[in-house]
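Example 3.2
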Amino acid sequence: MGNPRLLTGTHLMQGQQACAEGALAAGCNLFAGYPISPATEIAEAMARRLPQAGGIYLQGADELDSLTIVIGSVWGGYKSMTATSGNGICLMQENIGYAAMTETPCVIVDMMRAGPGTGIATKSAQGDIYQVRYGSNGDYSIIALAPESPQEMFDLTVEAFNLSEEYRVPTFILGDEILSNLREKVVIPAEVKTTPRRKPTEKPSESYKSWAVPPGEWVPPMPAFGQGYHLAVSSFARTPEGAPSQSYEVQRDIVNRLWNKVEANAGKLTRVEDGFLEDAEVLVVGFGSVARSVKSAVRQARANGLKVGFSRLIGIWPFPDQYIARVGKNVKKIIVAEMNMGSVSREVQRCMGSDTDVILSSKPGVAMHTPVEILDQIRKVM
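Structure, written as tokens:
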């Protein structure tokens, strides 16, 4: 039998609704959020669907409160998610750092809009790339996925939950206003593969070490409150027993693990779609909704005999350094199309060094790149 939580079959859905259905399919049983365009419809869908699936919907007092509820519920045994936009991410930064330090698996959906500040609530942008990665204090790593369609809003929300559980890390969905309100066909299968939370194998005892990592691994198992285990969940540097510590060795080991449990697995976490790279002299890079225009422009260029290929970055963080270096070395120039002032372009240039010409095709929000604009840019550099 199929999963009764799933709205299975083929549907015409907005990206936001598809995200909510993906969360349910992944086993999400608690959502906490605060209304904010262009993410409000995710909260509305979860408010309607979660009780039907036996879950809990809560509206926080604000975005910081919403992520606080999510973190607390995860330590109570729930799979939890919140959704917001860029200025809501600003308010969440304290708790993003807390979740990273306490290794709390959770999913944070950021439907990006034009900024900075309040910006334009109903217009799109891709300006939160660095904010989700480096917004909180200290050294840690996160995972961020960038869908390009309502179908991927479903698929990647499921994957975000699975990755958050595997790596015990806050995991982001980086959508945008265009994708929020885009309606397309979404196919929801009867069965969806999910990653269960890894529990301790030993029974509760006074000697249990809640932050001890098994030899050769990066991620400790995670008990929940109420299961009998001694748990001290604070964002202080701590010993394996959970006691606060000011030791250099303790700090070194924690930060090294918080960083490398993701960064050392960057190759495994690389998610890309590419095409026409066999003979490409120019590579066009895009992500999210802009990648749709990138792929259309590249196909038109190929039809006109231009040797150009595309790379769509699905996994933004950890950044796919090795992939970019590998495909970039075979081309003369790289164009990066993004609705910001060059976040991904700078990462691509970092990967390629000074020997490769990386050209930014920038729009700071509101109007997305059209295929014609990108095609014109391709022609200029060929």
